[in-house]
Design brief:
three-stranded mixed β-sheet, 9 helices, alpha/beta, eubacterium ventriosum atcc fold, 3 domains, single chain
Length: 263
C-alpha cells in the first residue's frame, strides 16, 4: 500500500515537472515570436523607406538648362535663371519656378564677373524641390556689369571726326609707302612737300619727330588699357595677352595630340 502511494506521489511530481517545463517552453516560444514580430515592422519600415526614396528619385521632374556664354547687365541688377539660360521642362509650373530663381546679386560698380554651372545648380535645387537638373552648354557664364550709357552727341561727333582724320592720313601714308617701296625717308619728304611746297634733301625733323612719337604712342595705346577709367575696361585683356593665351592653348593642344600620336 505504501509502495502504491509512493508511485502515485512520484507520478504527481513528474506531472508537475512536465507542466512546469511545458510552461517554460511555451514562454520561450512566445518570447521568440514576440521578438520576431517586433523585428518585422522595423524591417518593413526600412524597406518602405527605401522604396519611397527610390520612387522619389524616379518621379523627379527632369529640367534642362541651356546656358548662354555671356550676359550684360546694368548696375545693381539681379540676375535670374531666365536671364542667362533657356529652361526646358514638361511641367510648366516647375519651369516658371526655375526661371524665377535668383542666382546673382547686383553690383554697384562696373566690372566683369562670372557664374559657374555648379552655383546655378545648387541655388535652383535649394529653391525648387523634386527636380533633376541637366546643364547644357558651357560650364560658366561671363557677366558684363556696366552703367547705362548716356548719349553724348557732341562728344560722338568729335570722336568720329578725330577717327576720320587719323584714317585719312594713315591711308595716305600707306599709299605713299607702297609706291615708294616702303622708303619712310622719301615718304616723309613727299608729305612735307605736299603740305608746305618746300623740297627737302633730308628728312624734315618737324615731320620725323611727330611721326616717331606717334608710332610709340600708338603701340602703347594698342597693347594696354591705361587710358580707360572704367574698372570693367581695365579687366579686359589687351591684344598681346589674347595672342599669348591663344598661343598657349594651341601649344597645349599640339603637345597633347603629339603625345597621343606616339601612343
Amino acid at each position: 500500500m505504501n509502495y502504491i502511494l509512493k508511485i502515485s506521489k512520484n507520478k504527481k511530481a513528474i506531472f508537475i515537472i512536465l507542466i512546469v517545463l511545458l510552461v517554460v517552453i511555451s514562454c520561450f516560444i512566445w518570447y521568440k515570436e514576440l521578438r520576431t514580430n517586433k523585428e518585422v515592422p522595423k524591417k518593413a519600415t526600412y524597406v518602405f523607406n527605401i522604396m519611397k526614396r527610390e520612387w522619389k528619385t524616379i518621379s523627379k521632374e527632369q529640367v534642362y538648362i541651356y546656358l548662354n556664354k555671356k550676359y550684360a547687365l546694368d548696375l545693381n541688377t539681379n540676375v535670374y535663371v531666365e536671364d542667362i539660360a533657356k529652361v526646358y521642362c514638361k511641367d510648366q509650373s516647375i519651369k516658371k519656378k526655375v526661371e524665377k530663381v535668383r542666382i546673382y546679386n547686383g553690383k554697384n560698380s562696373e566690372q566683369y564677373d562670372y557664374i559657374t554651372a555648379n552655383d546655378i545648380t545648387t541655388k535652383v535645387l535649394d529653391s525648387v524641390d523634386n527636380i533633376d537638373i541637366t546643364i547644357i552648354g558651357g560650364p560658366d557664364v561671363l557677366l558684363e556689369i556696366k552703367d547705362r550709357e548716356i548719349p553724348k552727341t557732341i562728344l560722338d561727333i568729335i570722336k568720329t571726326f578725330f577717327v576720320c582724320i587719323i584714317l585719312f592720313f594713315g591711308s595716305g601714308l600707306a599709299i605713299i609707302n607702297f609706291f615708294e617701296d616702303v622708303a619712310m625717308d622719301e615718304t616723309i619728304k613727299k608729305i612735307y612737300f605736299v603740305i608746305t611746297g618746300i623740297q627737302k634733301e633730308s628728312s624734315p625733323l618737324i615731320a620725323t619727330i611727330p611721326f616717331s612719337i606717334g608710332i610709340g604712342l600708338g603701340v602703347f595705346a594698342f597693347f594696354n588699357r591705361a587710358f580707360s577709367f572704367s574698372k570693367r575696361r581695365k579687366q579686359e585683356p589687351g591684344p598681346l595677352e589674347i595672342e599669348l593665351y591663344v598661343y598657349d592653348k594651341d601649344m597645349e593642344e599640339a603637345l597633347l595630340q603629339e603625345l597621343k600620336n606616339k601612343d
